[in-house]
Amino acid sequence: MSNPTAETAAPEQVDPISFEVIRHKLAAISEEQAITLKSASGSPIVTEATDFNNGLYLPDGSIVTMGPQVLFHSGTMASVIRNINEQFAESPGIREGDMFILNDPYRGAVHQPDVAIVAPVFFDGRHVAWAGACAHQLDIGGMNFSSWAIKATEVQQEAMLLPGVRLVENGEVREDIWQMIMGMTRLPSLVALDLKAMIAANHVAGERLREVMEHYGPETVDAVMRAEIAASERQLRERLSRLPDGTFRAVDYLEHDGHENRLYKVVMTLHKRGTELTFDMTGTSPQAPGFINCTHAGLVGGIFAGLLPVLVPDIRWNQGILAPVTVVAPPALLCNAAWPSPVSGGTISTVFVTTSLAVRTISALVALDPELSREAVGVTKGSFQVLTLAGLDRSGAPFGTLLMDAMLGGGGAYGDHDGLDAGGDFDIPRPGVANVEHNEAAGPFRYLYRRFLPDTAGPGRSRGGSACALAITPHGVDHLDAMLLGHGVEVPNSTGIFGGIEGSCAEAVLVPGGHADIAGHADAMEHTSARQLGAKPGFFGLGAGDVFAYSFQGGGGFGDPIDRDPDAVLADTINGFVTLAAALRHYGVAIDAGSANTAATEEARAAIRRERLGGSEPPRRAAAQPAGDGDIAYGPYLVLDPSSAIRCSCGESLAEPGGDWKDTARTTVVPPEDHGPHVRLHEDLELREQVCPGCGTLLEAEVVRRDAPSTRSVEVMLDREATVAR
Amino acid sequence: MTDQDFQSGYYVGVDIGGTFTDVVVIDAAGGVLTVKAPTTPGRLADGVMDGLALAAERLGSGLDEFLPQVRLLGHGTTQATNALIERKGARVALITTEGFADTLFIQRLLGFTAGVPTDHLGWYSRRRYPEPIVPRAMVREVRERVDSVGDVVTEFDEAGAQAAVAELLADGVEGIAVCLLWSFRNPEHERAIGRIVESAGNGDTFVSLSSDVNPVIGEYERTATTVLNTYLGPVIAGYVDVLADSLKARGFEGAFYILNSSGGVMSAREAGGRSVELLVSGPTGGVIGSRYLAQELGHANVITTDMGGTSFDVGMIVGGTPVVRTSSEVAQYHVSVGMLDIAAVGAGGGSIASVEGGLIRIGPESAGATPGPACYGRGGTRPTVTDADVVLGIIDPGAFLGGRMSLDREAAERAIEEHIAEPLGLDLVEAAAGIKRIVDAKMADTLREVTIGRGHDPRDFVLYAYGGAGPMHCAGYGAELGVQRIVVPATSMVHSAYGALASDVQHVAQRSVLLGAGGDAPWDGLDVDALESQFRELEARCFAALEDSNVARDKVELSRSADIRYRRQTHDLIVTLEPGPVDRPKLQRLIEDFDQTYEARYGKGSAFREGGVELTTLRVTAVGRTARPRLGESLAGEASSNGHGSSAERSSRMVYDVQTGGHLETQVVRWEQIGQGETLAGPVIVEHPETTVLVPRGFAASTDSYGNLFLDATEGL
């Protein structure tokens, strides 16, 4: 049957119906690409944790479609292709039947293990698009198994570096390149499966795209791809134009650079002006001597991973979303490392906290719009603990794995509902962890427990999600080599929003010979011989009967915890997410005999407000004052009036136009245990609470370096002309 | 079976849908009668009895006269699914291994993305875990531990288990699910808990052990499967008992079977104990009905498409066998029981069309039955796919459902004009055509995903179309895929019920293993004798189960299969083993078949034998053929009973053709008027009391002696 659109549609004017049909096909192609990659891959990092991405791109690398997999790759696939276009178009050339492999973080990869394979798609001899895929490889060579080069001082030590090598030529894998790559990894069979899977995924995508072009005409399809990008950009700009202009700041910290337990800070200032967003990273620590840095590619990936689900969950993700965004980062910073700084740990370090910072600044921005404010969210598990296990299995064969269970942290809280208990990583839209039984079948170790840890959820009016804890011991073998890397053990990265409190810190312990005592019923963390491992112990051995245990960050809360519905707190105690002691201490809810005692709860909450105000009775009642005409609610408590003056909803005036409300708020430094039994602090950090002097409501809980001033988190200019004048 | 068996008696299929309870009756000569009775929520058995009474009446007898002549009653049910979705199951508790009480709540992080369409996965503020089917406070841990090879690492704490059970019983639970780590390797501790419940309880407590219900690796899915089985068991048992009693009271003495999710039937008696196997019993009926018909028509490869009011369900029959998957997602839980692989997408007659960002979107929101499409005149004002079909002239507003329901064409026009045409600056008909093209394309995407996406060429398949809206759209989505022949079955409106009587008794027994193979010879590392004895054990379980369903051992057909993957992969493929005792040549061919299947799916050169292969599951599927007549001519009197005489004139009307973009003079024919051997070139509208079939330009329509309608492509694509 003929299709009239193929003959009649003008390239630049595709009717809305053909547009929808074709763009649906493009999305279906990406999904089929992902299914192919997942099915043919051998690694749980790909199949369960979905640490991969794929999509279709214009000839210049602009993203047309991308899979809902790891979002760090959202911006970077574009830069991978751009680098190949720039460097290799002349020699060796980009021809039909070629595929290129790239993992160099200074040429577009997020870090070295994220290997990308991209394929130019040709139609009638013309280069019409790219198909590409990237997936985290368990080992890509370098000084350590699993290519997390904890002791590296330069990028050359960390892993093989593939700058965009032509791996497939005329549709055939080049055996010389293939063998070179296989010779540089410790797990050639696993890497081979994944590379074949990516090649297959690109084949599928190229075939399908050619079919669609055959059917509708290449000009029509090209017009749709470009119009699709333009549509997303237009929608985002419309959204931005609705939001007031402002500046939003957030700071996060990273401990330990692989060599020393030094504290690094990452600073993000988001300027929203008209329909443009600028992320300025000025103020971030200089690059580290160790592997926690990231390149510009990683920085962009980190920002978009935070931005996409908060600002544009309902707009299709492609190059159009990137168009209104500018990223400013002076060179040689932690988040914009200069070659040849080591960066192999960047994804779980600087990139990871960059995502949290983007979540915080964008949440602050969307909170200013009545409709979008429902997307504002506390930070989801702000750190990742990499654990690798290697050795010989029961049959004496080599064994090595990267345990992805560290995704079992808590989700950030939203204004109208709690964070997810076990919420996965923010950068992964469709996460999964393997069954205990599958992991035990694959390697010589055994779990003692894998369960929720009470009091890990960041308290709040909506609480954050709870985190899990687990313990393992070698099984059937005498020894395993373990390696642990992470952060957030002494930094509560999972900050709350609008008075919500941080979720738990991560923790890791080694209990020599602890197996018999713990055996599923005891918390390894509490064991008398538990040895704290800190953020980056690196390599350590696990002998028979030794127990390794770790737990993850809980999600940040939303709103003042003493505003939480007492029945919700009661349910949390019944379900074991919150202990009775924590219910009273953080939420001011007194529970006796299975129900919340109303009088005792009111008294406890009043006492908390008095304590926050230094012992005196709050002069005002905490009650929402209806916002007047032109007022804008900023979170549950703060209100901006048309002059940009800020007051608390109790009526207390907090800032004149252009002023910082934190200058008026009562600021106190509180000990970590005030925020939960699992909150711990690096010696250079402190916790500050900013409280409304009128009603004693907690407006913000802040993690900040001891000697640093509080961060001015928001500056809104409702009157744009006045701002320009200033 | 001899022909003698079919000299008398009726064979009945029943399917309970949201609005109607469908009944299909086949008599000994293969004549077919179909009736619909309103579904009676809360008392579903009443609706079934009403439907049966209506069927009896149409056959000129009373229920008490009809039921004793019914030899077999097959029943598909959405009861299990509904009880789960509405959280109306039993009050259950879970006992698990110490340290792992949260497995069912963590859900391997899969819970909050389950069922979320791909384009909504980035909408984090909408993520939610399912409402728990067991409150966390009702989970008890027992000290014990078995390792991956089945050795006991921690002794079973009998006293602790007794205390936990006593506590739960005192709490008044109706069911207890037991799922311990590695119990499928060593079920002793689970069995001990089963015995404790038995001796402590009053006999009413429903117990499911994971090592019985679902002895496969993967504790989350196994726990979910076992808990769901416990949660739904009492509900299903209660419903089936009521219906069985009602049937018996009116003289029914035949076999009473319930259709399960993998397309087999089980005896009603068994259904309560294996309720989790009924979770997609509903759409399964249509696929099985299609297979039955496909056998009659000689179609080996069939794509089944069921387009109803809210969803479009696609199943596959390859080489005569419905495609099955080993794990599924139901109401945001993941179960590892075999089910027919049915892909669903939110596209149906009631799917709402809207304009977002200058583009038309269809669904997933649906107008449902109330208010329904705007043209129903029940208060719906938003345009739906059915409204577009009315505006395009495909549906005659005066002849909908055989004229029993009159549609409001103006309301359909208003809705499309206001919500689609005006915002996009299109004229009314262009907008309606756009809705049809987009919904057809969306369905074609799903078809593409399950065919091309899984290595099948759709041109090798016959497409079956049923459900209320399927016959109107099948030519649209079929043509997009290059399908050459479409069948609209005579039973299309009650196709699921038809499937319920067309199923065989089936039992699947499986065991998780992890057997590595490969070296100089592909079978190196596999123990032939051990494999044979494991398959025999599974076969013994099948025989026992089929005996429970009254199938004699000599009527049972067995087939052995294994799930295989390349070493280190995490996804496997099901490969069938040749019949007869296991030997090396058979194993070699098994592994070669796997390589071929793999390359067919993932492309030439994708196979990776170098690292060897792993067998992960051994499975035996047992089928006991149920007696049923061959299809024959329609039951006498059916056509006329619907008020259609053969004397009616053929007419024509203008119908918009979305391919050429203009109205075409289109012949309107009543289904039963198409003579055998007659071929009608499209555009033609075929009207039936229950549905309308669009045969566009480029297709030709014909019928066969069973009353099935065929659409054949007459133009190249």
Describe this structure in words.
The complex is a heterodimer of chains A (726) and B (717). Chain A is 28% helix and 23% strand. Chain A is α+β, with helices and mostly antiparallel strands and 726 residues long. A seven-stranded antiparallel β-sheet of chain A has the order 2-1-5-4-3-6-7. In chain A, strands 11-10-9-8-30 form a five-stranded mixed β-sheet. In chain A, a hairpin with a 2-residue loop joins strand 4 and strand 5 (126-136). In chain A, helix 2 packs across helix 7 (218-242). In chain A, 63% of the residues are buried. With 717 residues, chain B is an alpha+beta fold. Helix content of chain B is 31%, strand content 26%. Chain B is globular, with a radius of gyration of 27 Å. Mean pLDDT of chain B is 85; it is low at 1-6 and 635-647. Classes of the chains: A alpha+beta (726), B alpha+beta (717).
Task: Describe, in short, the structure shown.
With 726 residues, chain A is an alpha+beta fold. Chain A is built from 16 helices and 30 strands. Chain B is an alpha+beta fold.
- What is the makeup of the main sheet of chain A? 7 strands, antiparallel
> What percent strand of chain A?
15-25%
Rounded mean pLDDT score of chain B? 85
> Going across the major beta sheet of chain A, what is the strand order?
2-1-5-4-3-6-7
Helix content of chain A: 25-40%
Mean pLDDT of chain A: 92
Q: Approximately how much beta-strand content do the residues of chain B carry?
A: 25-35%
Structural class of chain B: alpha+beta
Termini of chain A, distance in Å?
A: 65 Å
Structural class of chain A: alpha+beta
- Total strands of chain A: the figure is 30
Helical content class of chain B? 25-40%
The number of distinct β-strands of chain B equals 35
The count of helical stretches of chain A stands at 16
Using only CA atoms, what is the Rg of chain B? 27 Å
Number of helices of chain B: 18
The whole-angstrom Rg of chain A is 26 Å
Report low-confidence residues of chain A grouped into runs of 5 or more. Answer: 1-11, 721-726
